[in-house]
Amino acid sequence: MSVAANRKTRQRDALRAVFEQSDRPLSVPELFDRASRTIEGLGMATVYRAINAFVEEGWLEAVDIPGEPSRYERGGKGHHHHFQCRRCERVYDVGGCIENVRKLAPARFRVQDHALTLYGVCATCSR
Amino acid sequence: MSVAANRKTRQRDALRAVFEQSDRPLSVPELFDRASRTIEGLGMATVYRAINAFVEEGWLEAVDIPGEPSRYERGGKGHHHHFQCRRCERVYDVGGCIENVRKLAPARFRVQDHALTLYGVCATCSR
DNA sequence: TTATTATTGATAATAGAATATCAATATCGT
DNA sequence: ACGATATTGATATTCTATTATCAATAATAA
Lengths: 127, 127
Fold this sequence. Notes:
Chain A is of the alpha+beta class. Chain A has helices at about 10-20, 30-40, 45-55, 125, and strands at about 25, 60-65, 70-75, 80-85, 90-95, 110-120.
């Protein structure tokens, strides 16, 4: 389980490029499919290894939706939330945030963070 | 995978009782442990079978927190959200809701529902 | 009480996601 | 160009959560 990621390789370059060209979090299969267009014979293990390395260095961050396997997106975007389309299952970023979150918690509960997921139909699927 | 649940049994009675006495969603291990106090030799399979039956009839509802196995709570509570303690991992209900959720989504995204999870330290753990 | 059959419990099996293994290959400093 | 070794890809394995199997048991109607 080493995660050095020192050398520059075709596969990691391709995987990075996929994220740089994507405006939304990607699942592992999505990432694998897209990178495979560039790297034929790309292995799943390589994809997972790269993800772990990227997450470790902060270049990627995991996006977790209830009941779903992790998606990943570029790190350092700051606080934001996500939307999942019920038709295509894709996950999108939503900017902005909500207020008065702390007030919801019962007395003496210390609120440190929160995660909000919106569900519905995305622009692509609703047309 | 039959889920009839017709006959009245000690184990299902005990499992129901656990939920009736709990004020928060329970994980499968939590449910198993508590019901085992009443029913010695209770089997895991029985717990899962009961959960499925209860969910199917609406008596229970699944509570899904990102990256966590499902918890379960009594159904029909109406719209509410959840809090997870980072110390003890337990999940609690939080009443009330947030506003302006729809406004967060990008244009032409239809928002149908949302899920909010608060994270922090519960009253029990913070003392 | 008895017969029928739903239910249980122990355990094997499955499913999905992710990691470990290892020989072959590619990268990079010299 | 060479050598050390990081990385890759194929595949086996692990892990966690959950379901299937099946003989034994218990619940209910008659």
